[in-house]
Here is the input.
Amino acid sequence: MQKLEEGTMMLRNLIAAAAAAILVCGTSFTVLAADYQVKMLNKGPDGRMMTFDPAFLKIAPGDTVTFLPASKGHDSVSIKGMIPDGAQPWAGKISQEIAVQFTEPGIYGYECVPHFGLGMVGLIQVGDSPANLEAAQKTKLPPAAQKRMQELLAQVN
Here is the structure.
């Protein structure tokens, strides 16, 4: 009888440990979401004027990107036609930090409105399947922005 009680107690402990492990694993997925930072700069570390640093990011769905006004006079705004279907556009304010969470896989093009014509654009790839890549490549931009965006789109894999 005592061996049966010991066996039952061991089984209960094992079940409790398994339940705890499942609970920890289940909650750790939210902990895995990352927060990336993109600086909005008058001059980047590579000498490029009016730039985002980094200008290209590849992240996972659920990750957040915080755009930091490292230099004054910049914002981050999604480019119409360069975000996946179902994704929410964003529009930051001049010289203000903005955090954007990316949940839909695909390509997200963004600009600094005051410096768009100077080529101040960036690109974020969310996940491994850039379903809207072709639509993003067809989006018409001002010449300097178009040239820079083509450089960034070449980094998509």
In short: Strands lie at 35-43, 49-53, 56-59, 64-68, 77-78, 98-101, 106-111, 121-126. Residues 2-31 form the longest helix (30 residues). The chain has three helices and eight strands.
